[in-house]
Design goal:
The protein is mainly alpha-helical. Helices cover about 55% and strands about 5% of the residues. It folds into 2 domains: about 30 residues; about 70 residues, Arc Repressor Mutant, subunit A (Orthogonal Bundle), CATH 1.10.10.10. The chain contains 5 helices and 2 strands; from the N terminus they run ααααββα. A two-stranded antiparallel sheet has the order 1-2. The radius of gyration is 21 Å and the shape is flat. This is RNA polymerase sigma factor RpoS. One of its GO terms (molecular function) is DNA-binding transcription factor activity.
């Protein structure tokens, strides 16, 4: 509100909408992951994931890192590195096995 300048010819609602949306996106990027990633990394990862979803629909299979890299015209190593950041994280207290009596922590040496 303090930075809004009506002299620039924009309506306040237009100005406020952008800032509200940006604040919500930042909060989601900072709080939805178990391990926080920097904002610029999350934005880049989202580009890769969006491309992977689009390719998946077009190719009727999950795209490989090579296919994503070719679509984005970037090195495969960069895609592989970013996709590793999106892997699922498990708690050491996660039950394992069919009976669920042991936790992951019980089998880690």
């Amino acid at each position: 509100v303090e930075k809004f300048d009506p002299e620039r010819g924009f309506r306040f609602s237009t100005y406020a909408t952008w800032w509200i949306r940006q604040t919500i996106e930042r909060a989601l990027m900072n709080q939805t992951r178990t391990i926080r990633l920097p904002i610029h990394v999350v934005k880049e990862l989202n580009i890769y994931l969006r491309t992977a979803r689009e390719l998946s629909q077009k190719l009727d299979h999950e795209p490989t890192a090579e296919e994503i890299a070719a679509q984005l015209d970037i090195p495969v190593e960069d895609v592989s590195k970013m996709l590793r950041l999106n892997e699922r994280i498990s708690s050491v207290d996660t039950p394992i096995g069919g009976d669920g009596e042991k936790a992951l922590l019980d089998i880690i040496p």
